[in-house]
């Protein structure tokens, strides 16, 4: 049975007090949830340690990590530092990191490997931009992101990875992929994983959908056989909306 997961990416939002209140509200509603989905939140770095004290069932993720363990890398935060404050997951390869901070597949692969080595579970993001979909290259682009981004991992390490398919044209735009588009790509991703690893990795991988997911469209998206949950941006900033998505299962 694949794990169902709903993860909230808070991005560059909330000051500490608001973040702590949001985490507390998410934790409270998590206790009343009607689905068995695992709930993860990814607050900004500055909040992680304090937010950890506000949650019990809800799991903690960071939104990024360094590709190095220590040393002269001003502004970076290492996976071991994150683990030391109770972080379990790390979002890697998000389209905003790829486009705004020029993170390429090779760098993301380095981060994935280091995160795993230091005990973090990567939420590995992939997804095509609109022009790539319109020119029919979306499968090719996502395949390359996965082939390079997850290159060199063992099947054992892959059991610690979560994949998030996030079509870039759907992120923060209000334009959601249709349930058929999501299912088609998720099935394809499972096929890529099968060719790179084995049947167990492909079958057991939780593949989340991300991009303008809301309580109103989550049920239809999640009813697809290869959609195992969601990575949520905007709607993760309101506990009721976020848990509305969790309860869409
Ligand atoms: C995201 O950035 O991961 C995301 C899915 O954002 P939104 O839900 O706002 O589209």
Task: Please explain how this structure is put together.
- With 249 residues, this protein is an alpha/beta fold.
- Helix content is 43%, strand content 14%.
- It contains twelve helices and eight strands.
- An eight-stranded parallel beta barrel has the order 1-2-3-4-5-6-7-8, surrounded by five helices.
- Helix 1 runs parallel beside helix 12.
- The radius of gyration is 17 Å and the shape is globular.
- The two termini are 15 Å apart.
- The site of phosphoenolpyruvate (PEP) has 13 residues, from strand 8.
Topology:
Blueprint (H helix, E strand, L loop, with lengths): L4 E5 L6 H16 L6 E5 L5 H5 L6 E4 L16 H6 L4 E4 L2 H6 L4 H13 L3 E6 L3 H5 L3 H12 L5 H4 L3 E4 L13 H18 L2 H6 L2 E4 L4 H8 L6 E4 L6 H8 L3
Parallel strand pairs: 1-2, 1-8, 2-3, 3-4, 4-5, 5-6, 6-7, 7-8
Helix pairs in contact: 1-12, 5-7, 7-9, 11-12
Phosphoenolpyruvate binds next to strand 8.
Q: Work out the helix count.
A: 12
Give the proportion of residues in helices.
Answer: 40-55%
Shape, principal axes of CA atoms = globular
User: Radius of gyration, rounded?
Assistant: 17 Å
Strand order of the largest sheet: 1-2-3-4-5-6-7-8
**Mean pLDDT figure:** 98
Give me the count of strands. 8
Q: Could you give the order of the helices and strands?
A: EHEHEHEHHEHHHEHHEHEH
Distance between the termini: 15 Å
Short structural summary:
This protein has 249 residues and is α/β, with parallel strands linked by helices. The chain contains twelve helices and eight strands.
């Amino acid at each position: 049975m694949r794990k169902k997961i709903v993860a909230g990416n808070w991005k560059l939002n909330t000051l500490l007090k608001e973040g702590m209140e949001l985490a507390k509200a998410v934790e409270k509603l998590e206790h009343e949830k009607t689905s068995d989905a695992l709930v993860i939140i990814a607050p900004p770095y500055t909040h992680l340690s304090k937010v950890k004290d506000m949650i019990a069932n809800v799991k903690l993720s960071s939104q990024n990590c360094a590709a190095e363990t220590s040393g002269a890398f001003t502004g970076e935060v290492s996976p071991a530092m994150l683990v030391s404050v109770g972080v379990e997951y790390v979002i890697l390869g998000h389209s905003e990191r790829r486009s705004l901070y020029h993170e390429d597949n090779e760098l993301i692969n380095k981060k994935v490997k280091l995160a795993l080595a230091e005990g973090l579970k990567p939420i590995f993001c992939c997804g095509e931009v609109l022009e790539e979909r319109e020119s029919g290259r979306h499968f090719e682009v996502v395949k390359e992101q996965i082939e390079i981004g997850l290159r060199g991992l063992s099947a054992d390490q892959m059991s610690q990875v979560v994949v998030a398919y996030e079509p870039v044209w759907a992120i923060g735009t209000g334009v959601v992929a249709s349930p058929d588009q999501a299912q088609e790509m998720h099935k394809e991703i499972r096929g890529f994983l099968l060719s790179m690893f084995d049947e167990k990795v492909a079958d057991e991988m939780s593949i989340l959908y991300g991009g303008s997911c809301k309580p109103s469209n989550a049920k239809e998206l999640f009813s697809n056989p290869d959609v195992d949950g969601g990575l949520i941006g905007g709607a993760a900033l309101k506990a009721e909306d976020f848990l509305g998505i969790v309860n869409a299962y």
